[in-house]
Write a structure and sequence with these properties.
four-stranded antiparallel sheet, alpha+beta, single chain
């Protein structure tokens, strides 16, 4: 898991925006009260993060415009199997 974590963190640093992420099945976290995004590490483990801008770029629908998010704050690294 440590190797996957290193790779995903490198992917986050290299991406110009969240929508550039392709590894780790990137997806918006459904049901979250705040707008969170996640990428998988390995079986059941994932990194959860949110936009880290003074003004969060939003779509007209009210959701985060992840194509304009270039700064993120990692909230947690979780493993649902632990």
């Amino acid at each position: 898991m440590a190797e996957k974590l290193k790779r995903r963190l490198a992917d986050l640093r290299a991406a110009e925006c969240v929508k550039d992420l392709i590894a780790g099945r990137p997806h918006e976290v459904e049901g979250a009260t705040h707008r969170h995004f996640a990428v998988s590490l390995c079986e059941g483990a994932r990194i959860v993060f949110c936009a880290n801008h003074n003004t969060i770029p939003l779509e007209k629908s009210g959701g985060v415009d992840w194509s304009k998010v270039s700064r993120v704050k990692i909230l947690e690294v979780t493993n649902s199997h632990a």
